Amino acid sequence: xxxxxxxxxxxxxxxxxxxxxxxxxxxxxxxxxxxxxxxxxxxxxxxxxxxxxxxxxxxxxxxxxxxxxxxxxxxxxxxxxxxxxxxxxxxxxxxxxxxxxxxxxxxxxxxxxxxxxxxxxxxxxxxxxxxxxxxxxxxxxxxxxxxxxxxxxxxxxxxxxxxxxxxxxxxxxxxxxxxxxxxxxxxxxxxxxxxxxxxxxxxxxxxxxxxxxxxxxxxxxxxxxxxxxxxxxxxxxxxxxxxxxxxxxxxxxxxxxxxxxxxxxxxxxxxxxxxxxxxxxxxxxxxxxxxxxxxxxxxxxxxxxxxxxxxxxxxxxxxxxxxxxxxxxxxxxxxxxxxxxxxxxxxxxxxxxxxxxxxxxxxxxxxxxxxxxxxxxxxxxxxxxxxxxxxxxxxxxxxxxxxxxxxxxxxxxx
Length: 414
Ligand code: GLV
Ligand code: MN
Ligand code: MN
Description:
5-stranded antiparallel β-sheet; alpha+beta; 414 residues; binds glyoxylic acid; binds manganese (II) ion
């Protein structure tokens, strides 16, 4: 079979596998796969079957990220790490995360098919939590691989009051061994992640593949407002301390600041009111904040400004505000040498490699702390993501498999 035919066949398999994984969900009729859930267990088990069939030795690390190991042609060789994540947002598309895992797997299948062993091992990581849907903090899987998971995060609770530590244990992991699961920089050649672009630039340029220049920084926080619950019919408007009204004013302040600040994007994606009855003034409310900017000082300044504004709003309404910053990640440039290699690999497919920044966060931003990291973006329809309408073309996936294969072959002869 020619290389082109093989890559087309592998791309069709990737598409079918994305379809299959999309059925492994916590919710009927839509894809929601939070970390450490039975749905993620089924996804890990399914991908493990495919990894073994591709000649990989398979294990789960201490947080439950699935790792396939394709051995080198010699002992003591270093490792090229490929990866992405298998958890999802709520009502997700089927490509954000799984596409990167499965294109990485296709690259290993090419090697296995040819009976090739390389002067380095290839590991493929399917990270257990990147989206942060369940515990509010993201990149948990890659943070363990990079040895930078803050131990305090183990006490975070999900909506059912289950701690991260308990969820990891129930999944089969071991919170006590997280630090020991860190990859050693000296063992790694680099980390490469394939991902849908999640933006419109590739489509606008008519190109299927892009090479990421940098991943913008992000801050995530939970804001809790405590007012006074009361009777919706008896408490006069002037005497209320309505926590939800304060939250609503803060939501609009978030939008106002982001609209007025070049480069800033800020989102409140979760909002809840308590006790949650139509005839009770909300005594408590909480909201999530996700704030991003390519420039770190600008992001920090925006967080400070927003916090001051939220405190003002709460004070004006006689409501207490607690601001918990869950996570802050700096903007991360991708490694120039790997970018250059990826761009050359894309060029061999006959396409122009588009250099572009990533507005979304990725495991690559975390892995860059321990090894040279780079990302290959694949065009997605309309730039749509975090939405069940996510779509990629099988031909673009074939191009990504070809480019990743060329990249790996290039490293092998370097
Ligand atoms: C991951 O999808 C993120 O950027 O939040
Ligand atoms: Mn995502
Ligand atoms: Mn993703």
